[in-house]
Design goal:
Length: 190
Amino acid sequence: AGSEAYQSVQLAVEEANASGRLAPYVLQLAVQDDVSDPKQAVSSAKNLSSNPAVLGIISHFNSGCYLPASRVYHENGVAAISPAASNPSITQQGFPEIHRIVPTDQIQGDATGKFIAKRGVKRLAIIHDKTQYGEPLARMVQASSVNSGVTIVSYDGIQVGDKDFRALLTTLRSKNPDGIFFGGLYDEGG
């Protein structure tokens, strides 16, 4: 998913430069890949925010990366905006440089729980990937679903990188849910 964000930013920079509206200035991309690793995200944030030519950051896709990196951007006074990070803690820190363009897990989770109930799901199994994105989102969906009259029959976490979910799915089958919600990243969700 990070490659799609990168390609979008690359296209926006090309279009802005081609428009001539920024003349005599030209935007250039300085790219760092955090490889979805919070430690690498902090390292990338330090590299970018220590460069005086960097005006701002189109930041991390994952909440688990953006949360620790946001502190680095704040300490260096560099504006950053995420196209996807939704953990509420990121912007609740109150750092004026830190932004996002998507709603928080609270908003997404509330809407999802209500949607699940409106679809007629009475018994819901919830699975999350134990990340700073998946687990808070799953908790919000759980709370909203319960408030909407849905019974949670299972709430389980998996490890990022796991490939075999047969044991969990066998257990879930015996609990007979009407639906399964997964809070997490694409690979494990698939």
